[in-house]
């Protein structure tokens, strides 16, 4: 795992998706093409934030960019 990837693991992040949605939560690990986010909230334009149960798995090809908060 590259040093830049280790910087955001176990930190609060905002994962911006290519479809305009975003997931905010704690990036708990990365494994291959997958990101695992805990304590997540789904953010969509013109919609109230939606809390998500469990651990969310996001495929890297759906990610536009990740912001460390």
Q: Would you write up a description of this structure?
A:
- The protein is mainly β and 69 residues long.
- The protein has a single domain, classed as SH3 type barrels.
- Helix content is 6%, strand content 57%.
- The chain is built from 1 helix and 6 strands.
- The chain has one helix at 3-6, and strands at 11-17, 22-31, 34-43, 50-51, 56-59, 63-68.
- Strands 1, 2, 3, 4, 5 and 6 form a 6-stranded antiparallel β-sheet that branches.
- The longest helix has 4 residues, at 3-6.
Radius of gyration: 11 Å
SS field, number of helical segments: 1
Order of helices and strands: HEEEEEE
CATH class: Mainly Beta
User: Structural class of the helix and strand makeup?
Assistant: mainly beta
What is this entry, summarized?
This protein has a single domain, classed as SH3 type barrels (Roll), CATH 2.30.30.100. Helix content is 6%, strand content 57%. It has one helix and six strands.
